[in-house]
Amino acid sequence: MSKAVFFDIDDTLYDTSGFAKLARKAAIGVMIDAGLPLSSDEAYKLLREIIKEKGSNYDKHFNVLTKQVFGEEKPLLIALGMITYHNVKFALLRLFPETIPTLIYLKSQGYHLGVISNGITIKQWEKLIRLGLYHFFDEVITSEEVGAEKPDKKIFQQALDRMGCNAENSIMIGNKFSEDILGAIDIGMDAILVNSELSREEKLFLKERNIELEVLPNLQDIKKIL
Amino acid sequence: MVYWLNDNSRFLEIKDKAQSFIFQVNQNLPEGMELEFEGFFQRGFFVTKKRYALIQDGNIVVKGLELVRRDWAPVAKKTQEKVLRALLEEGSPQKAVRIVQDTIQEIKDGKISLEDLVIHTQLTKNPEEYVQSAPHVMAAKKALLKGRKVGPGTIIRYVVVKGRDTISQRAVPLEDADVSQYDPSYYIDNQVLPAVTRIIEAVGYPKEDIIHKEKQSSLDAFF
């Protein structure tokens, strides 16, 4: 039976949080230059409310924004906003420096690599391609395909099935305790929490469920377990 | 099994190592002498042995650097804070110098608001009982003339304005101050510069570099 390592994408393989805000601000700046009658702060606040309401995977945030401000959609402003957002986002898209060496190491150890992600399939592949990572991954399992989001067991089970692995031979790496780590331990996989703090409640939760917790002070320590 | 990749735990490891090192050293020290573990800091600089600034997880620890002087205006405190953060968080003396230069320029351009210029000092006795004429005493006397009640315990808020008299004589109660009248030289020479020069000099920039940003680069600077 083959052994597998599954990854979350955003803020695990690459640094997401920083750039989305910058890209949104840049988009708003261009829209204001072209006649959006709001201050930068007002427009950013409004856009954030729209994103919160519609979800970050909704693809017409700028349409809604212009409709709310003008009472009708403004195609020029929407296009300007979209193009600027995407240009800035792609200019800023960066892997964590440790990502590629870690993936190469795992490959050299004979692991199959997969992605388990809450999101739209084509968008997740797009990220892997733009980041130059897609050759590393055998499968990308998304909530869109499975119809269930992490930490739901279904998405983890389907990932294991598609990779031909069982839970004991697999490990999940992610930055969200409530999605990546909980989902993995629920199905009996080991898990590594990265780029995140572990709260007292979370530590307590593991203790109550008799799940052993080991702190790895250094990325190199991953080599001891994988 | 859950693993937590946590770089911060390295600090705990360092603490362990430091403590076992200290334990060994202390066994060999003469009686009455003891080494203690003060903390683990990511970055710091020392002006002298007893004057230093250190940072740990975003918290700045300052010793002997006159971080808080009661008679400092917010503009001086804020500039010092920004300078320390540039040095300790970003390790950038260049940025620190630029912060000071920019602040000096803003002061010269009259861009500082009254609330950043105001100095607070508490009166300990009635204004007329003071022998010396400190700025806050002079400001208090002006407030008295305007019919306001001041006495022991009153906190005098004043701003130093332009003029030819002594600094004390130019201290005006906040209520009567006009922001366009503040004295740039006083706020640069007596507030901002004293708050930051010692720090910036300690990381290798002479005071002259801070003040004269338009200074020509020497040829050496290009190599």
Q: Tell me, what is the CATH class of the largest domain in chain A?
A: Alpha Beta
Average pLDDT for all residues of chain A: 90
| CATH topology (level 3) name of the largest domain in chain B | Topoisomerase I, Chain A, domain 4
- Tell me which protein chains meet in the greatest interface and how many residues each side has: A-B, 23 and 10 residues
> What string gives the helices and strands of chain B in order?
EHEEEHHHEHEEHH
Structural class of chain B: alpha+beta
Q: What's the β-strand tally of chain B?
A: 7
Q: Helix coverage percent of residues of chain B? A: 40-55%
Radius of gyration based on Cα positions of chain A? 20 Å
For the largest beta sheet of chain A, what order do the strands appear in spatially? 3-2-1-4-5
Intertermini distance of chain A: 16 Å
Write down the domain tally of chain B.
2
Query: What is the CATH-assigned architecture of the largest domain in chain B?
Result: Orthogonal Bundle
Supply the CATH superfamily name of the largest domain in chain B: B family DNA polymerase, thumb domain
- Based on CA inertia axes, which overall geometry of chain A fits? elongated
Q: Largest sheet of chain A, if any?
A: 5 strands, parallel
Task: Say what oligomer this is.
Answer: heterodimer
Estimate the global geometry of chain B from the Cα principal axes. Answer: elongated
* Elements of chain A, N to C (H/E): EHHHHHEHEHHEHEHEH
Largest sheet, strands/sense/barrel of chain B? 3 strands, antiparallel
What would CATH call the class of the largest domain in chain B?
A: Mainly Alpha
